[in-house]
């Protein structure tokens, strides 16, 4: 050591500051807040090689797994959908869009379209190796085939093949030009390239039903049509980018064709409906014109009130007469029209059908709001029926769009149209009563007005109404025919699928990263778990919190060969650790100092601590005696070069005097008492009053008495010596001491008159949580005069 230790004759602290037995220590300064990651980091540092092995094994497993992972390619296509709202649309077919909302996506995934794609591309055959796909070009199946897993063996030398079912056990053989699997329902002829080269090859593949392949394909494709958007996006992931491109392009082309056919079918049905209505209108117009013609022929020779004028010509334009004629005509039309309307409705009800003929009734054709509700109801019914018929070609009645149309049609037929007819007929009845009352008051003034004029006007009006309705139907029918001939699909392909060059999901790197991260996580978790269940003493807070021992000092861990005397840093750390321990013991005890040093279990360094602490007190100028109280296995005599006897047991057995057992060592102010002769009665000797007498004699002649005891787990020896000394210093070896053992042994001290000064942590690595228990280098004291080294470590 660099500076000379100064002897002292008085205790280091006054009696007021000394701790007496059973005195509780006063609270000191608060310990700094520990970081919550200190202990996990210490655990990882301790198990670093185990963690490294786990990470290496996990990484190796990840590398092996990447050999079985195939890259995934994503193909993408965009379509534009013309969605039209029912408001503002014109034309017989453009009253509403063909499909609405997500129904476009449902149509895209319709099984009839997907089945067509599966059949065209033979997706029901799936080779295990993508590289074998070229062999299945032209592969197809018959109506009846055997599905399952197959293995095809190719003998390239003999140009023969052997097909075996791995599911059913069926087998077949053939030559190069033979059809493969003909008896199993396959239509398949191998290409010439399959037998190129020599040797043999195995090809494994799976054949499923087209329906199963379609369901699997629907589950892989992603078709989205966002709200308020006209763009349908289609994506498909596959290990074979070329096949994925074919699938998507075939699918979207079939989708456009299916939508065009559906639209064409709807337009044709609507045009046929208008054609039937136009034929009925033509017959009604012809009947009205014939009635007017016969009326004029029959009245051409009748005289008139005004003279020989043409029959049927109005005889006066007097306002009263004109008003009467108008009301009479209106009343007659109303009466006859209502009767005809009632007869039409009654006849339809008898047949449990809707009275379409009411649309040709002049009152309905030319009526106001109530009649308009009837016309609108029939128009909406025709439109819905046309759409329903078109959709039925691709969807079942349970499909939501078809079921919704059926519900709307049923509502129109059973509720909306009948209610409109009832309301309108009630309105006509009220008008007829009102007109009858008005005409009765004016009939006396106009009795002489010819009734044929009224009939003429009624027949003329019927012809006019029939002509107007017929003209409208002709216009609508012409529009429907034009729409049918010039119909274009509502779906347009904006961007077809293109096979990507780079994979979109190469899970090999991700799998490797997950393996590394998983291995690291497992290693960290295992390290923390092992740290949690570790029964040995590892951390300072385990001494303070679990064992209730204040830390009296720490001794650093040194290489297995011991302290290197040529290393100033190691010597400095060792000497300063015992100086610090000496200061703690001095401030916690009275004068003279009597102290027992023990440990819960063997091999924890208690003898090393005892010897070096005694030497530290001696170098501090205190007359010190070191007693080897380990009468069973004590070896301190070897360190100081003495014989083990006579010693402590000889004195306690009254076979030697105190002068005979106390040895003077080569260290200044340090004496030593060896363990003595080993005998079975040594525990009883240590518990005898002679030990107390020895302690009194040693205290009277020495400033410091330090007793090295057997481990507390060895028996009562340590407890007996500690009781005689009055104070105990417990040595805990980091990584060796079992916490439960230490707690159990220390619990016995609660019943003994022993003041436990604290714990000495031995074998401390000055990093992590023990980083602040070391001493700053560069401050080792040095002698200005060489040759005054007083430090001696056994």
Amino- and carboxy-terminal Cα gap: 15 Å
What's the tally of helices? Answer: 22
Major sheet summary line: 8 strands, mixed
Widest beta sheet: strand line-up: 12-19-18-13-17-14-16-15
Low-confidence stretches: 1-30, 85-96, 303-317, 785-794
Shape: elongated
What's the helical proportion of residues? Answer: 40-55%
Number of domains: 4
Strand content: 5-15%
What's the average pLDDT?
A: 77
Shape-level CATH architecture of the largest domain? 3-Layer(aba) Sandwich
Rg, rounded, reads: 56 Å
Global structural class? alpha/beta
Structure notes:
The longest helix is centred in the middle third of the chain and has 59 residues. A hairpin with a 4-residue loop joins strand 4 and strand 5. The protein folds into four domains: 52 residues; 138 residues, no CATH class; 227 residues, no CATH class; 238 residues, P-loop containing nucleotide triphosphate hydrolases (Rossmann fold, 3-Layer(aba) Sandwich), CATH 3.40.50. The strands form four sheets. It has an eight-stranded mixed sheet with strand order 12-19-18-13-17-14-16-15, with helices on both faces. The protein has a five-stranded antiparallel sheet with strand order 2-8-4-5-6, with no helix packed on it. The two termini are 15 Å apart. Helix 2 runs antiparallel to helix 12, helix 4 packs across helix 6 and helix 6 packs antiparallel against helix 11. The N terminus and C terminus are likely disordered. It has 794 residues and is α/β, with parallel strands linked by helices.
């Amino acid at each position: 050591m660099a500076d000379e230790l100064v002897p002292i004759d008085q205790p280091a602290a006054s009696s007021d500051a000394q701790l007496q037995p059973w005195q509780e220590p006063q609270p000191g300064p608060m310990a700094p807040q520990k970081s919550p990651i200190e202990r996990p980091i210490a655990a990882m540092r301790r198990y670093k090689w185990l963690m490294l092995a786990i990470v290496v094994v996990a990484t190796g497993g990840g590398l092996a797994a990447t050999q079985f992972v195939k890259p995934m390619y994503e193909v993408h296509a965009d379509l534009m959908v013309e969605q039209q709202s029912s408001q503002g649309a014109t034309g017989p077919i453009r009253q509403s869009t063909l499909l609405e909302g997500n129904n476009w996506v449902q149509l895209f995934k319709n099984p009839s379209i997907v089945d067509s794609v599966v059949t065209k591309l033979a997706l029901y055959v799936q080779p295990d190796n993508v590289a074998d796909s070229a062999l299945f070009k032209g592969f197809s199946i018959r109506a009846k085939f055997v599905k399952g897993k197959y293995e095809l063996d190719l003998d390239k030398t003999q140009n023969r093949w052997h097909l075996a079912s791995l599911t059913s056990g069926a087998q077949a053989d053939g030559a190069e030009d033979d059809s493969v699997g003909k008896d199993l329902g396959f239509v398949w002829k191998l290409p010439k390239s399959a037998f190129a080269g020599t040797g043999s090859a195995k090809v494994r593949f799976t054949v499923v039903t087209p329906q199963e392949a379609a369901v699997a394909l629907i589950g892989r494709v992603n078709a989205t049509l966002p709200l308020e958007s006209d763009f349908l996006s289609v994506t498909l992931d596959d290990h074979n980018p070329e096949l994925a491109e074919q699938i998507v392009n075939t699918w979207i082309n079939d989708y456009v064709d299916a939508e065009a056919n559906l639209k064409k079918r709807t337009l044709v049905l609507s045009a046929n409906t208008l054609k039937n209505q136009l034929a009925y209108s033509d017959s009604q117009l012809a009947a009205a014109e014939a009635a007017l013609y016969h009326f004029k022929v029959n009245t051409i020779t009748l005289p008139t009130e005004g003279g020989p004028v043409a029959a049927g010509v109005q005889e006066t334009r007097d306002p009263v007469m004109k008003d009467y004629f108008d009301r009479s005509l209106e009343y007659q039309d109303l009466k006859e029209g209502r009767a005809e309307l009632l007869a039409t409705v009654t006849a339809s009800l008898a047949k449990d059908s809707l009275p379409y003929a009411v649309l040709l009734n002049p009152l309905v054709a030319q009526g106001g709001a109530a009649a308009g509700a009837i016309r609108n109801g029939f128009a909406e019914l025709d439109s819905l029926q046309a759409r329903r018929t078109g959709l039925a070609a691709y969807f079942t009645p349970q499909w939501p769009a078809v079921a919704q149309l059926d519900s709307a049609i049923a509502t129109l037929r059973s509720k909306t149209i009948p209610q409109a007819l009832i309301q309108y007929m009630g309105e006509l009845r009220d008008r007829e009563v009102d007109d009858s009352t008005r005409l009765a008051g004016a009939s006396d003034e106009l009795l002489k007005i010819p009734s044929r004029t009224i009939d003429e006007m009624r027949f003329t009006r019927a012809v006019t109404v029939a002509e107007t309705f017929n003209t409208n139907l002709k216009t609508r029918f012409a529009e429907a025919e034009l729409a049918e001939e010039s119909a274009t699909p509502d779906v347009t392909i904006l961007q077809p699928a293109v096979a990507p060059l780079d994979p979109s999901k190469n899970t090999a790197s991700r799998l490797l990263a997950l393996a590394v991260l998983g291995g690291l996580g497992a290693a960290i978790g295992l390290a923390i778990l092992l740290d949690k269940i570790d029964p040995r003493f590892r951390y300072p807070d385990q001494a303070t919190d679990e064992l209730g021992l204040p830390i009296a000092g720490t001794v650093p861990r040194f290489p297995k060969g011991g302290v290197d005397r040529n290393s100033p840093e190691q010597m400095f750390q060792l000497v300063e650790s015992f100086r610090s321990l000496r200061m703690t013991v001095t401030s916690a005890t009275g004068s003279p100092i009597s102290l027992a040093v023990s440990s819960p279990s063997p091999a924890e360094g208690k003898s090393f601590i005892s010897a070096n602490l005694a030497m530290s007190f001696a170098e501090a100028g205190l007359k010190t005696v070191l007693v080897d109280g380990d009468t069973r296995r004590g070896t301190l005599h070897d360190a100081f070069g003495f014989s083990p006897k006579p010693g402590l047991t000889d004195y306690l057995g009254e076979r030697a005097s105190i002068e005979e057992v106390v040895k003077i060592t080569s260290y200044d102010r340090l004496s030593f008492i060896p363990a003595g002769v080993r005998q079975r009665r040594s525990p009883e000797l240590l518990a005898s009053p002679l030990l107390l007498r020895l302690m009194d004699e040693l205290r009277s002649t020495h400033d410091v008495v330090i007793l090295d005891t057997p481990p507390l787990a060895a028996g009562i020896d340590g407890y007996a010596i500690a009781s005689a000394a009055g104070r105990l210093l417990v040595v805990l070896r980091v990584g060796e001491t079992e916490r439960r053992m230490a707690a159990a042994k220390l619990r016995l001290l609660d019943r003994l008159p022993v003041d436990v000064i604290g714990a000495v942590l031995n074998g401390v690595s000055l990093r992590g949580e023990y980083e602040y228990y070391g001493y700053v280098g560069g401050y080792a004291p040095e002698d200005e005069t060489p040759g005054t080294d007083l430090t001696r470590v056994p």
